[in-house]
Amino acid sequence: MGLGYLPKAPGTWGTLLAIPIWWALRSLSTRDFGVAVLAFCFVAVVIAELAERIYRRHDVQKIVIDEVAGLLVTAIGVPFRFQEVAVAFVLFRILDMTKPPPIRSLDRGVKGGLGVVLDDVAAGIVACGLLHLGRALNGGWW
Predict the structure, then answer these.
(1) Coarse DSSP helix, strand, coil percentages of the chain, rounded to the nearest 5 percent
(2) From residue 13, how far is each of 5, 17, 33, 62, 134 by CA, in Å?
(3) Three-class SS of residue 142?
(4) What is the tens place of the pLDDT at every residue in 92-140?
(5) 142 pLDDT tier (thresholds 50, 70, 90)
(6) DSSP state of 27
(7) The pTM is what?
(8) In the chain, pLDDT over 70 holds for what percent of residues?
(9) How far is Cα 82 from Cα 103, in angstroms, rounded to an integer?
(10) Any residues with CB less than 8 A from the CB of 45 and at least 6 apart, and which?
(11) Secondary structure of residue 24 in the 3-state scheme
(12) Angle of helix 112-138 relative to helix 65-74, nearest 10 degrees?
């Protein structure tokens, strides 16, 4: 959709694109949402692979479908409400930008479209886990 061509923070713009997709899928059961996200991730790998062939470089900033996939993974089982969306967005962006271990090793060690998407999916899994842990410690969604 051209967000990767924006001059500032294309990954953040890509992550923002995931929010209306999350909203569109919000009425699905957690299982069906997860299946839709898994299917999206597979499509993202294919698109990222094709984009890498076009750009002839690994994980160029112009590819932002991986950020979309990552935030959607973060959103699995999370209600679509302002506070949860905001926290999910911030958690995912922090993890995606800082790439703490083992996310960093996925980013560096896996090549091709799978490598482009996998580190963002891993960041999404960690962010999703942290959201659900916060929910459990807080006695429900806040």
Answers:
(1) 75, 0, 25
(2) 10, 6, 22, 11, 26
(3) coil
(4) 999 999 999 888 888 777 888 898 899 999 999 999 999 999 989 988 7
(5) low
(6) T
(7) 0.90
(8) 89
(9) 27
(10) 113, 114, 116, 117
(11) helix
(12) 30
Say how far apart CA 50 and CA 52 lie, in whole Å. Answer: 5
Instruction: Give CA–CA dist 12/89, Å, rounded.
Output: 9
How many whole angstroms separate alpha carbon 142 and alpha carbon 30? Answer: 18
Residue among 89, 72, 94 nearest 26 (CA): 72
When pLDDT is cut at 50, 70 and 90, the band that residue 3 belongs to is low
Helix 112-138 vs helix 82-98: crossing angle, to nearest 10? 130
Contact between 72 and 22 under an 8 Å Cβ cutoff? The reply is yes
Q: Which of 119, 127, 121, 76 is nearest to 101 (CA)?
A: 119
Number of CB atoms found within 10 A of residue 12's CB: 17
Token pair 């482009």: residue: 116
Model pLDDT for residues 59-95, shown as the tens digit of each residue:
667 789 999 999 999 999 999 999 999 999 999 999 9
What tokens does 79 get?
């209600």
Predicted pLDDT at 53: 87
